[in-house]
Amino acid sequence: MQRFFAARSILGNAVKTRMRCFSSLSSSLLFDDTQLQFKESVSKFAQDVIAPHAERIDKTNSFPKDVNLWKKMGEFNLHGITAPEEYGGLGLGYLYHCIAMEELSRASGSVALSYGAHSNLCINQLLISGDHIGALAMSEPNAGSDVVSMKCKADKVDGGYIINGNKMWCTNGPSAETLIVYAKTDTKAGSKGITAFIIEKGMAGFVRAGVYVLMSGLDLERLVLAAGPLGIMQACLDTVLPYIRQREQFGRPIGELQFIQGKVADMYTALQSSRDCDNGNIDPKDCAGTILCAAERATQVALQAIQCLGGNGYINEYATGRLLRDAKLYEIGAGTSEIRRIVIGRGLFKEP
Ligand SMILES: Cc1cc2nc3c(=O)[nH]c(=O)nc-3n(C[C@H](O)[C@H](O)[C@H](O)COP(=O)(O)OP(=O)(O)OC[C@H]3O[C@@H](n4cnc5c(N)ncnc54)[C@H](O)[C@@H]3O)c2cc1C
């Protein structure tokens, strides 16, 4: 915790005034004072350091080389929020990780997804400083929802393993120095024959019991990534609210029209009620339910954001189209909405 406050002071103390103007929504009923302070601090960092590059990153599909965002996030201690302090982390829980994920997603959905893949999917304890980028390679061209059917194979040889196979959809894949790669070490053992390998440039290592690591990791992945759609919904409101105050039709701001007020009311309600269900529980069906609910609402909120801006919402002059794409991803990545419903339904069916 001390490290976070140290990082905070590096960026100065101008947080409060700006954020009070910037955020029209209150989180004060959901968080205590320390959590609110953390949220405001990450928000300022994200708006100052990440948001100015969001459009360029979306257009070029690459991290800007001139701004070392990754390292800056490391200096701000964002990579090791849940890692113990003795390993250089902040020693905080998953609620703080979710708060950071929300604020980063508010600034840029794609940077936040990269951050989520690095700090959550990939073992965050290894990658706290931001010197290295991490990735997780699980999906394959023919193994998406049915990921256990993966074909990637690891054969034991003298001094280690040789891994052969094709991986796909690996967030941070092109730039990662450290990868968690899942492969079959026993093709006859089904899900029990999967091993998680930690592969780093210049270093080899492996973790056994891959399917356990894979499935337990998916619960936490869903929990932390559920905060992504929250940030995107907040970004939709950040775009829409100033617009409807300024845009005039029929001689008055469109925000005075009841239809538009109804839309922003629905958007706000979707955001706030999703925050309530993002409550830090680590139960497979609750993790699946949290991201299912937040992701589907985020897509609807992004569609409403486009509608509120009319023609301007449809073209790429405003962020709304990007926000819709960023929101829709959360219905697909980390297991699709359909798979999440199966996880929840199966859990409920099994419970006494
Ligand atoms: C931008 C992005 C980033 C990603 N990052 C990573 C990453 O870092 N690491 C990684 O390993 N993977 C990653 N993924 C992969 C992601 O996890 C898969 O896309 C996801 O699991 C779905 O697999 P699929 O795309 O092959 O779809 P499919 O599994 O082919 O599914 C197609 C459709 O069929 C439905 N379906 C499939 N099975 C069932 C069923 N049993 N019942 C009902 N409906 C079903 C699905 O819900 C979906 O609607 C990423 C994907 C994207 C788009």
Quickly describe the structure.
This protein is an alpha+beta fold. The chain has helices at 2-10, 15-22, 33-50, 54-60, 69-75, 94-107, 109-121, 210-225, 227-246, 258-277, 284-308, 311-314, 320-329, 337-350; strands at residues 134-137, 153-157, 160-164, 178-184, 194-200, 203-207, 248-249, 252-253. It folds into three domains: 14-131, Butyryl-Coa Dehydrogenase, subunit A, domain 1, CATH 1.10.540.10; 136-216, Butyryl-CoA Dehydrogenase, subunit A, domain 2 (Beta Barrel), CATH 2.40.110.10; 218-350, Butyryl-CoA Dehydrogenase, subunit A, domain 3 (Up-down Bundle), CATH 1.20.140.
Give an overview of the whole structure.
Helix 2 (15-22) crosses helix 3 (33-50) and helix 9 (227-246) runs parallel beside helix 11 (284-308). The model is unreliable at 1-25 (pLDDT under 50). The strands form 3 sheets. This protein has a 4-stranded mixed β-sheet. It has a two-stranded antiparallel ribbon with strand order 2-3. Strands 7-8 form a two-stranded antiparallel ribbon. The chain folds into 3 domains: 14-131, Butyryl-Coa Dehydrogenase, subunit A, domain 1; 136-216, Butyryl-CoA Dehydrogenase, subunit A, domain 2 (Beta Barrel), CATH 2.40.110; 218-350, Butyryl-CoA Dehydrogenase, subunit A, domain 3, CATH 1.20.140. It is 53% helix and 11% strand. With 352 residues, the protein is of the alpha+beta class. A hairpin with a 2-residue loop joins strand 2 (153-157) and strand 3 (160-164). It is built from 14 helices and 8 strands. Flavin-adenine dinucleotide binds at residues 117, 136-139, 144-145, 169-171, 329, 332-333, 335-336, 338-339, 342. Flavin-adenine dinucleotide is lined by residues 117, 136-139, 144-145, 169-171, 329, 332-333, 335-336, 338-339, 342.
